[in-house]
Amino acid sequence: MDVRLEPVKVDEIIHSAASSFEPILSNGSVRLVREIAPAIPTLSTDPGKLSQIISQPLGRTPVKFTEHGEIKIIASQQNGSLQLIVSDTGIGIGKEDLNKIFEEFYQGDLSTTKKYRGTGLGLAIVKRFVSLLVGRLTSQVKRVKEQTSQSPCL
């Protein structure tokens, strides 16, 4: 898979990706919050892959797993690298599933699979793109009902 490097303004990619999901959240029960540090420099990266890294977690989060609360995108610079955090107040992930959620076709709790459907490819795509952009991907549960995917990817 090719990586096409070009100058990218991270805030523009985040706003574009987030804007495409706002119509889904129009009923007002879920709020999309963007926290973008003002000092993030223009990066040399693949804009399409960065957009997918942001969009994939957003695409599954509001539609499937967060009925009320908020979805948050945080972008900052940490030790010269871009750090992206996508978190939500959705149904959460069991700690036993955290080390598997980036595997292809993994869907976690089978009782929720029937309700929420999906292929189990979204986070696997994120993992692959982060790796192509020489990044690191982690996941953690901060509360029983909050899922966070972190990807300091550039």
List keywords for this structure.
alpha+beta; five-stranded mixed beta sheet; two-stranded antiparallel sheet; 4 helices
Computed Rg: 15 Å
Question: Residue-averaged pLDDT, rounded?
Answer: 76
Instruction: Give the spatial strand order of the biggest sheet.
Output: 2-4-5-7-6
Shape: globular
Fold blueprint:
Layout: E1 6-8, H1 10-21, E2 30-36, E3 43-45, H2 47-65, E4 69-78, E5 81-88, H3 110-116, H4 122-132, E6 138-143, E7 146-151
Parallel strand pairs: 2-4
Antiparallel strand pairs: 1-3, 4-5, 5-7, 6-7
Helix pairs in contact: 1-2, 2-4
Structure description:
The protein is α+β, with helices and mostly antiparallel strands and 154 residues long. The C terminus is likely disordered. It has a five-stranded mixed sheet with strand order 2-4-5-7-6, with helices on one face. Strands 1-3 form a two-stranded antiparallel sheet.
Gist?
The chain is built from 4 helices and 7 strands. With 154 residues, it is of the alpha+beta class. Helix 1 packs parallel to helix 2 and helix 2 runs antiparallel to helix 4.
